[in-house]
Every structure is written in C-alpha cells, then in structure tokens.
Design a protein that fits this description.
The protein contains 3 helices and no strands. The protein is an all-alpha fold. The longest helix has 24 residues.
Length: 80
C-alpha cells in the first residue's frame, strides 16, 4: 500500500470520528448551547478539512482529538 494511501485511510477514519462526535455534542443538552455550538463547529471544521484532503497541523489534530476525548468522557459521565 503506498504511503499516501495509508494516510488517506487514517484521515478518512478520523474525519468520520470527528463528524460522529460533533453529532453527539449537538445532542448533549447538559452543555450550554454556546459551548455545544463551538465544540461542534471545531469538530465539523476538522472533519471537513480532512475529508477534502487537507492535512491538519499536528498540534491542531492533537487538540481536536483532545476535544473528542473530553466529549466521550462527559458523555460517559467521567467528566466531573
């Protein structure tokens, strides 16, 4: 498998994960509306960039993954 194809598969998987997490955030009434909108926007923007073949800088990617992890923890009741 060419190296670029491997990256494309990883990026596509991350894009799907970011999109799914954005959808979860939109359905979390326990979060204030402005926070839901901002977090969802960040995740959706990262998803869009990856889906369009653009590379996210490493620190941006790490930050978005951190947001994604925090959403999962809140969703599972571990965020407190």
């Amino acid at each position: 498998m060419p190296e670029g194809q491997y990256y494309d598969e990883i990026a596509a998987e991350q894009a799907r994960e970011f999109r799914a997490t954005a959808e979860v955030v939109r359905s979390m009434p326990e979060l204030p509306r402005p926070l839901r909108a901002a977090v969802s926007h960040v995740l959706s923007a990262a998803c869009t960039e990856l889906a369009n073949g653009r590379v996210l800088p490493m620190e941006i990617r790490r930050a978005v993954r951190h947001v994604q992890k925090a959403v999962r923890e809140v969703e599972q009741g571990l965020g407190g």
